[in-house]
Amino acid sequence: MKKVLILGGGFAGVEAAIYLRKENYEVTLVSDRDFFYIYPTSIWIPTRETEYEKICVDLKELKEAHGFNLIVDGVTDISAKNGEVTLESGIVLNKYDDLVIAMGASKMKHKGIDNTLSICGAPEQALLLRDKVDHIISMGEGKICFGFGGNPNDSSAVRGGPGFELMFNVHNLLKKKGIRDKYELTFFAPMAEPGKRMGPKALKMMDTFFGMLDIKQHFGKKIKAFEKDGIIFEDDSKLDSDFTMFIAAGDGHEVIKKSDLPLNDAGFIKIDDHCNVRFSDKDTFCDGEDMSRPHNIYAIGDIAALEGHEWRAKQGHIAEVMARNVAHNIKEKDNGGESFLGYAEHINILCVMDTGDGASFVYRDDKRAFMIPMPIVGHWLKKGWGVYARYSKLGKIPRIPGM
Ligand SMILES: Cc1cc2nc3c(=O)[nH]c(=O)nc-3n(C[C@H](O)[C@H](O)[C@H](O)COP(=O)(O)OP(=O)(O)OC[C@H]3O[C@@H](n4cnc5c(N)ncnc54)[C@H](O)[C@@H]3O)c2cc1C
Predict the structure, then answer these.
(1) In angstroms, what is the span from residue 134 Cα to ligand 1's centroid?
(2) Is the CB of 103 under 6 A from ligand 1?
(3) How many Cβ atoms sit within 10 Å of the Cβ of residue 76?
(4) In testing the pocket of ligand 1, which one of 6, 11, 165, 321 has its CB within 8 Å of the most ligand atoms?
(5) Bridge-partner residues for 70, per DSSP?
(6) Which of 65, 150, 159, 214 lies 20 to 30 Å from 249, alpha-carbon distance?
(7) With contact defined as beta carbons under 8 Å apart, do 43 and 123 qualify?
(8) Cα–Cα dist 138/54, whole Å
(9) Which distant-in-sequence residues (6+ apart) come within 8 Å of 99 by Cβ?
């Protein structure tokens, strides 16, 4: 049985493990944490609408359900040239036929970032955010700022949606408690039109939401630093904040940046449409293999450099498409076939953006861009998706095709 080594146990890595097992490969998955984290539904942890444990799926349970090997350890080095992966424990893994890299992205480092918390950072930050929300409610009044930043080297690494979602949820929580009028809520971003990638209709609708919910906007000024009590902008102006939730844009993973893999300017791994790492034409590797032809190293999910439309975004459903494609492509390569599957045709923005008491369905592809409000039902639809994600991955309920 051919062996595939997968690095990372997020949306991309777990999906690849599941689908490679279906193709009968011996799969080993390495993850630095022992659980798979359902990021999209973590937005309800800070407002106590869900519990942390409900967002985590034990990787051991997934391993048992699908029959892959699991190593809980951190990857510290990858050498494509030597065909080696080194782990924190000192173990070197080199006995694999194919390598799938799926360790997600790191975050841009802003000055004073420790004065902020992010809903898109390490999972544990969601619990710290919960403490902060509790604390500011106990204060009886305050100024709360929510924002996100950009990566000038890769526009696909920006993640703003969860910031909007968390803010709307905090707004609703304060409203339910009858204390909304005691708080000033502000959304800030360095871009003049944050959310523009969702399309012009969505942008207009967000503006209407902000007005209706009395949320202040602070857009178009570069962020200089974060301080304990506010945000400093490029012109040295300050936005006062008792509590700042900030999503730094994605950046290349540290382990990848020091590897010999080909990277774009932001440090994401260059791939072709089939998620095969795109080495240069002249690269040959440990066994003299010509790496410009289909070879055995793949990168999927947030760690890979997405190509295509300016509005493209790193999203979980794209990570999963890439993972399923790679399972197919490895099988196809081993069978000597040529009908490889590509990710580019699947690039779209697809999101149910929660508003605390409802949601909006956001969709964009190369032909259409729209946002449809889904009062009440949208909120429960997103909650239902979270339950579906857990149990379908555990093999306890059937998968809906394409989801
Ligand atoms: C709050 C939030 C809400 C979101 N909502 C949506 C949404 O509604 N729709 C949507 O499509 N997308 C959404 N996304 C985006 C989506 O979650 C990501 O695109 C997706 O998680 C990417 O999957 P991944 O496997 O590439 O990376 P990750 O999910 O980040 O997984 C990476 C994995 O690699 C592991 N890892 C990292 N470094 C190492 C190392 N050195 N050694 C070993 N293991 C390592 C990590 O522990 C992790 O398990 C959201 C993201 C966030 C944060």
Answers:
(1) 26
(2) yes
(3) 15
(4) 11
(5) 29
(6) 214
(7) no
(8) 26
(9) 4, 5, 7, 83, 85, 296, 297, 298
Tell me the CA end-to-end span of the chain in Å, nearest whole number. Answer: 28
User: Which DSSP state fits 170?
Assistant: H
Ligand 1 atom at shortest distance from the alpha carbon of 353: 8
CA–CA dist 378, 375 (Å, integer): 6
Is residue 141 a contact partner of residue 243, using CB atoms and an 8 Å limit?
A: no
Helix and strand counts by DSSP (H, E) for the chain: 9, 22
- Alpha helices (runs of H) in 158-295, residue ranges in sequence order: 161-176, 200-212, 254-257
**Is 69's pLDDT higher than 70?**
yes
Determine whether the shortest distance from the Cβ of 190 to ligand 1 is under 6 A: no
Q: What is the DSSP letter of 2?
A: -
Of all protein residues, the one whose alpha carbon is nearest to atom 38 of ligand 1 is 103
Which tens digit of pLDDT belongs to each residue from 140-180?
Answer: 999 999 999 999 999 999 999 999 999 999 999 999 999 99
How many angstroms does the Cα of residue 175 sit away from the middle of ligand 1?
31
Q: Which two tokens stand for residue 311?
A: 């509005």
Query: CA distances (Å), 302 to each of 10, 13, 55, 197, 267, in order?
Result: 10, 11, 19, 17, 11
| pTM, to two decimals | 0.96
Look at 138-142, 205-209, 217-221, 249-253 and tell me which has the smallest mean pLDDT: 205-209
HSE-CB at 152 with a 13 A cutoff on CA atoms is 3
Q: Hey, whose CA ends up nearest to atom 29 of ligand 1?
A: 10
| CA atoms 303, 304, 309, 315: torsion sign | negative
* pLDDT tens, residue by residue, 76-128: 999 999 999 999 999 999 999 999 999 999 999 999 999 999 999 999 999 99
Residue that is written with structure tokens 């080594």 in the block:
5
Residue that the structure tokens 């409802």 belong to: 358
